[in-house]
């Protein structure tokens, strides 16, 4: 446990443009998010550095933003966010984090494993500032909280859903960037599908490889990859590709096939023209993890090191919006309970 150190620095941010986040950006389906219910602002300033795509990606970043906005409203925190740019060098990420620190933001939350190297460096240079990083569990420090998830468990459930709904015995997976993290999604998805149908065919494609992270923000690439899978017989495609998922949804709509979303309930957030093609989504409650961390900030005590969000704590799961999995929900919940009980052990690779 580590007590929060409050900074009084007021250095101006010059090289980057930060977008303010507040109650006005709250989700309309959360009654506590209404602006009129927000508490008065206090003296805690929270900075958030987004991954590629930023606010509006309808997936990974937006889930983190939801937790930040909830803290702004319910805890009275002053918040700022900054967005990464596609193809930027590591130095840009370091500068983004340092400028938030210089402007008096403490804690600072980095959204995405791509910030791992930068968090390692900047946290050591600023030992009195608290940092949190989403999806990176290996970079450790006395002032670092690692918000990590059992993506393979949630992906197992949507893989089972894909196999139960597939009529062709052929499904697909589109990964944004070929990294160890995204491979967890693929591994869980395949395991869930094969638990239902050991003979099922699973096509897999990654849109880019490090240091190219464009695969998280290129809907055209997502569309091309998914279209190719549908043309080869797939009737369900799961994406773990951030903003590129919009292209997967469009491909599913055009092919009159199913797609599976990721990170948030994308049948609620994707463009209305494609929502009908979204079978389910693998829910990854980044907003819950971010808000939990910030509640620790409010209390003056912060848990450092890896904080794991799995099925047991509702850190991951699947969505039911649209009613497309209502007929198989009992089976999916049976698998869920077996994973929680340890009867089924889902490998991350």
What form results from the Cα inertia axes?
globular
Question: What proportion strand?
Answer: 15-25%
Low-confidence stretches: 1-34
CATH topology term of the largest domain = Rossmann fold
Q: Which whole number gives the mean pLDDT?
A: 90
The sequence of SSEs as H and E is EEEHEHEHEEHEHEHEHEHEHEEEH
Q: What's the helix count?
A: 10
> In angstroms, what separates the terminal alpha carbons?
31 Å
Number of strands: 15
- Write out the CATH superfamily name of the largest domain: Response regulator
Structural class: alpha/beta
**Name of the top-level CATH class of the largest domain:** Alpha Beta
Instruction: Tell me the radius of gyration.
Output: 20 Å
Q: Order of strands side by side in the largest beta sheet?
A: 2-4-3-5-6-7-14
Architecture (CATH level 2) name of the largest domain: 3-Layer(aba) Sandwich
| Main sheet summary | 7 strands, mixed
Q: What is the number of independent domains? A: 2
Proportion of helical residues: 25-40%
């Amino acid at each position: 446990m580590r007590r929060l150190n409050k900074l009084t620095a007021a250095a101006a941010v010059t090289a980057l443009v930060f977008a303010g986040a507040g109650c006005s950006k709250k989700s309309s389906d959360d009654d506590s998010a209404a602006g009129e219910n927000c508490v008065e602002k206090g003296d805690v300033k929270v900075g958030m550095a987004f991954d590629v795509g930023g606010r509006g990606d309808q997936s990974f970043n937006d889930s983190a933003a939801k937790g930040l906005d909830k803290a702004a409203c319910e805890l009275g925190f002053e918040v700022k966010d900054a967005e990464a740019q596609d193809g930027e060098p590591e130095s840009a990420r370091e500068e983004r984090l340092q400028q938030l620190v210089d402007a008096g933001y403490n804690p600072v939350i980095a959204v995405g494993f791509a910030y791992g190297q930068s968090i390692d460096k900047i946290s050591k240079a600023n030992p009195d500032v608290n940092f949190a990083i989403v999806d990176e569990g290996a970079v450790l420090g006395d002032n670092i909280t690692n918000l990590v998830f059992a993506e393979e468990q949630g992906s197992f459930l949507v893989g089972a859903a894909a196999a139960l709904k597939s009529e062709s015995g052929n499904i697909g997976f589109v990964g944004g960037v070929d990294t160890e993290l995204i491979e967890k999604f693929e591994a869980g998805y395949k395991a869930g599908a094969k638990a239902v149908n050991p003979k099922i065919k699973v096509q897999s494609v990654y849109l880019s490889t490090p240091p190219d992270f464009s695969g998280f923000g290129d809907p055209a690439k997502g569309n091309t990859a998914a279209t190719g899978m549908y043309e080869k017989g797939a009737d369900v495609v799961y994406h773990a590709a951030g903003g590129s998922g919009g292209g997967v949804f469009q491909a599913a709509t055009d092919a009159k096939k199913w797609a599976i979303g990721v990170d948030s309930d994308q049948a609620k957030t994707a463009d209305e023209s494609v929502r009908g093609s979204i079978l389910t989504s693998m829910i990854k409650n980044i907003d819950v993890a971010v808000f939990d961390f910030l509640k620790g900030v409010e209390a003056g005590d912060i848990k450092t090191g890896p904080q794991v969000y799995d099925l047991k704590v509702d850190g991951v799961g699947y969505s039911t919006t649209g009613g497309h999995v209502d007929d198989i929900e009992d089976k999916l919940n049976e698998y869920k309970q077996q994973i929680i009980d340890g009867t089924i052990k889902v490998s991350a690779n």
